[in-house]
Amino acid sequence: METDYRFERVMKLADHEKQNLEIEYKQLYEQFDQIAHRLIDLVDQKESIQMDIQKKMVQAMRVDQMTMKFADINKLEILIEETRKYFLSLKERLEVLQTKLQEKTIEVKKYKKLKARRQSFERKQRMRDEMKKMDEIAGRRAANR
To answer: Its GO biological process terms (predicted)?
Structure first.
């Protein structure tokens, strides 16, 4: 019968923290991915409006239409800048979280390795004890003959 590993609760706690970090990382990554797609869409919209302006300038374009298009571009540029800032903050948070997750993974592996070493030591100790008992039994049998 194996004895309880003395760091079992600490290992379970570290493993639980690691799982929570993984969940948080996945959620943050999904949010990061959505913002990245949103940023790409905004840039595409801006380029589309700029292309539209260029096409209409070749023909004839009223001043009020041009003003509206430029206002749309300005709004998109502001939105792109805000989205880019949010994107960069998410990226930074992801990097920090990834570092924490790596550290926690290393910690959990360390505890598992310590546990495996302890179990191996205990198994070898039990085998030595059994061999010693068998030697004693064999010695008694030999002495009784």
So the answer is: bacterial-type flagellum organization; bacterial-type flagellum-dependent cell motility; chemotaxis; protein transport
